[in-house]
Structure formats: structure tokens, C-alpha cells
Write a structure and sequence with these properties.
Blueprint lengths: L1 E5 L7 H11 L6 E4 L5 H13 L3 H22 L3 H19 L8 H25 L4 E4 L15 H14 L5 E5 L2 E3 L5 E3 L4 H13 L3 E6 L20 E3 H9 L11 H5 L4 E5 L8 E4 L7 E16 L9 H11 L7 E4 L2 E6 L5 H8 L4 E15 L8 H8 L7 E4 L5 E7 L3 H12 L3
Parallel strand pairs: 1-2, 1-7, 2-4, 3-4, 7-9, 8-10
Antiparallel strand pairs: 5-6, 9-10, 11-13, 11-14, 12-13, 14-16, 15-16
């Protein structure tokens, strides 16, 4: 059994839903995870915003507009009056439910219920379409098996137990359709796995059923060796180690959600990134296999702030780093990069919410310098320290780009460099030319 996840753009229109249906009807009893149709979640967020502001008229206007869009998709998707009517009733019931929230107090709890409707509609429509075309598919409700614990982390034991029970109840099905992103929390309330959570859903489901493979279908041919929006001549990376994929996802490769691959990695289930628009393309396979001595890709993370704390009086003083890091912990601000010397430490953050308070507290321990509008460029591959020469290649590529910080050794798969945002394109292109295009 495989788990196949399709994102919002893959099911973004009636034609694309038909294309996905062709891909998933291969004869295997796979589990198919669907996101909401593209644009739907943003509209539901906008509806929620109006409801928070106690503007039901504004909310109803967006609801009506979104409902009409769906009725248009229904006319295109189904060929029989019977299934058009079933789909209209399905869509109407969900939008009528959303309208009930325009009459009462609106809180974060209600917002999560509203946001869940997108996935419930898209999976319901897909299941009806498959049934109309003669496929014996079954709709599995994620709210019946996907649950988080009191720490808002997925509960793998509960997920496995409940999902196995649901699958056992439908052993005659040829295909299973379910929702990504949505879940219930430890208190039974409707919740979600945050943006990008459909990837996480697929990975958790794959781990629960011990899948042969998890496939993430998007509108891009796998993960590229650099950002194709910024750099010329990028190409897909055919094989990645889980650690390499995690580094790329964290540092800006948007094709994959950073948390998605952890359950797959722990259960040794390969993840394949594929393109809905080019289903014949091989995509990218992510597994526990490493290609020795090979640099795979470059990614960049924007909106970085660099903070340098310099203190002569703290020279060799024990506890200096602890005090510095405690300040960031107190303001719940994660640190990306760290470099140290005997008289100071430089760190980077990507959240400026408490920047002023952090800087103010750091001034107790030394002179503080802040650089904004920075970018972390990370080079990913098998970068074990005994692989001689790769550092020289990276530094040589960056010879004409000013580098504020370099971090290496925290991972065997990543070298990070901090540059000005204005030098991002130049740095990415130089690394591509030097590492991949020669």
C-alpha cells in the first residue's frame, strides 16, 4: 500500500481533479490524501477574519463567492445529473454550516472548524467523482483517526489504532480517500496540523499503515538543486537523504514541509516527490540512503536578522553562552545559526517580534550589533568532515560575495552562509555555476 498526497494546485480545478483521478486509479488499494482546492483555505481565512471583526455581511459575501466557484466546478466535473445533484448537496451543506458562524461569537475554535471545511469538500467531491466513474472508493474521515496530544503533537498510537480499524471495516474498497491538514486535538475539538500539514498527514498515515512508499504530488518536478525562481539552469535532484531533504525544506525549499518527513524517516519509508503536470517524470526520491561525497542542492532562507554580542570582559567566562541563549528562550525566539569567538557570539533569528526586548537584555552582557535584511544560504549534501575539498569549492564559489557568517559542523549535511539580501541572487547563481553547472 502506498500513500499519495495531492496539494491544492493538483486539485485546483475540475480538469485537474480528473487528471488526479486517472493517476490514482492504478489498481492498487492506496490511500489518497487531498488538500483543499487551491485558494479555498485563503478564502476561509478571509471569512474568519470578517467574523472576528463582527462583520457577517463581509463574511457572507466571500462565502457566496466561494460557493459559486464550487458550483461551477461541479458542472464541469460530473457528467450525470444524479452526481451533480449529490455534489451540490454536499457543497451546500458545508457552506450552510459555515454561515451558522455568522450569527454567534467567533473564536479560534470556530475558526479551526471553518478552515477544516476546505479539505472536507475537496475529498467529498473527489470521492463522488470516483464513484460516478465506477471506482469503489471509500471516504475516510480524518477527524475519526488523526489526533494530536496535549502537547499538540500527533498521537501515533491512536492514529495507527483508529486508522487500522477504519481500513478493516472497508476491506472491499479499491481506493481510500482522506483529508490532509485537519485533525482533532486531545480534547476532541477540530484542529489542524498548521499550514503545509497535508504533507505531515501523508507521512503520519504512511507510518501508521507501514506504507511501501509515500508520494507527495505537486506542480513541480521534484526538488531542484537551486531556486528556479532566482537562478538560471536548475535541475531536479533525483535522490536525497532524509537529512538533506530536511535541511533544504527548513532553509527555503518550499516544495516540502520541514516536519513532514520525520515520521517517514523514523519508519524508514521512502518519500517520492512527483509532478501532477508531468506524471511520467521520475521526481525526487527521499530515503535513508546517502550518495557519498556529493553536493546536492542550495537553498536560501529570507528575512534573517543577525545579532552580534561582543564582550571583552566575558573573555573565557563560564556561563556567557548560557546567559545569551536564555534571553532568546525567554522570548520564545528560535536561533538558526551560531558562530562564536573568544570575545563574542553571533546568532541569527527569523522572527523580529521581540527583537527590541532581546537586544535590550543582551546589552547587559556586551556591545550588541544588529544587521537586518539578511539571507541564509545553505549548501546541502554529504558534507562529512573527512570528504576533503568541498569547503574550498563552496568558498571559491563565494569569492565575490561578502559573507557575514559561516556555520559548519552542526550537521553532516549542511554548510550555511549569511549574506545580505541584496547579494542573494548573486550568491545562489555563483554556487550553482561553481557546484553544478561546470
Amino acid at each position: 500500500m502506498k500513500v499519495l498526497k495531492f496539494g491544492g494546485t493538483s486539485v485546483g480545478s475540475a480538469q485537474r481533479m480528473k487528471d488526479v483521478a486517472k493517476l490514482i486509479c492504478s489498481g492498487d488499494r492506496n490511500i489518497v490524501v487531498l488538500s483543499a482546492m487551491s485558494g479555498t483555505t485563503n478564502s476561509l481565512v478571509e471569512i474568519s477574519d470578517y467574523l472576528y471583526k463582527k462583520n457577517p455581511d463581509g463574511a457572507n459575501e466571500i462565502i457566496n463567492k466561494l460557493a459559486q466557484k464550487y458550483y461551477g466546478h461541479i458542472e464541469e466535473l460530473y457528467s450525470t445529473d444524479e452526481y451533480k445533484q449529490k455534489a451540490k448537496e454536499l457543497v451546500k451543506s458545508h457552506f450552510d454550516y459555515i454561515r451558522t458562524f455568522t450569527k454567534d461569537l467567533f473564536t479560534l475554535f470556530e475558526e479551526k472548524v471553518v478552515l477544516a471545511q476546505g479539505e472536507l469538500i475537496s475529498t467529498g467531491m473527489m470521492n463522488l467523482y470516483l464513484n460516478e466513474t465506477g471506482v469503489n472508493s471509500v471516504l475516510l474521515l480524518a477527524l475519526e483517526y488523526m489526533r494530536t496530544d496535549k502537547n499538540a503533537e500527533p498521537d501515533p498510537v491512536y492514529i495507527k489504532e483508529r486508522l487500522t480499524k477504519l481500513l478493516d471495516e472497508h476491506t472491499d474498497a479499491s481506493l481510500y480517500i482522506t483529508q490532509g491538514y485537519i485533525c482533532r486535538n486531545a480534547y476532541g475539538e477540530i484542529d489542524n496540523l498548521q499550514r503545509g500539514g497535508s504533507d505531515y498527514s501523508a507521512s503520519l498515515i504512511g507510518a501508521a499503515v507501514n506504507a511501501e512508499e509515500i508520494q507527495i504530488w505537486t506542480d513541480i518536478d521534484g526538488m531542484h538543486n537551486n531556486d528556479p525562481r532566482v537562478v538560471d539552469k536548475t535541475s531536479p535532484v533525483r535522490n536525497l537523504h532524509f537529512e538533506e531533504a530536511a535541511e533544504l525544506a527548513y532553509f527555503g525549499a518550499k516544495i516540502l514541509h520541514p516536519t513532514c518527513i520525520l515520521p517517514a524517516k523514523l519508519n524508514n519509508i521512502p518519500v517520492r516527490l512527483l509532478n501532477t503536470m508531468q506524471p511520467e517524470a521520475p521526481g525526487t526520491l527521499i530515503s535513508n540512503n546517502t550518495e557519498k561525497g556529493k553536493i546536492k542542492a542550495v537553498a536560501a532562507k529570507d528575512n534573517i536578522i543577525s545579532i552580534k554580542i561582543k564582550s571583552g570582559r566575558m573573555l573565557l567566562a563560564t556561563g556567557f553562552l548560557r546567559k545569551v541563549f536564555e534571553i532568546f528562550e525567554n522570548y520564545q525566539t528560535p536561533i538558526d545559526m551560531v558562530t562564536t569567538s573568544e570575545v563574542g557570539v553571533s546568532v541569527t533569528i527569523d522572527n523580529r517580534k521581540h527583537l527590541e526586548e532581546i537586544v535590550d537584555d543582551l546589552k547587559k552582557y556586551g556591545t550588541v550589533t544588529v544587521d537586518e535584511d539578511m539571507v541564509i544560504v545553505c549548501v546541502v549534501g554529504d558534507l562529512e568532515w573527512d570528504n576533503v575539498g568541498f569547503e574550498a569549492r563552496i568558498v571559491q564559489a563565494m569569492k565575490d560575495v561578502p559573507v557575514r557568517m559561516i556555520s559548519y559542523g552542526g550537521s553532516n549535511y549542511n554548510v550555511s552562509l549569511l549574506v545580505k539580501a541584496s547579494d542573494k541572487k548573486k550568491a545562489l547563481q555563483a554556487l550553482s555555476d561553481h557546484l553544478f553547472n561546470n
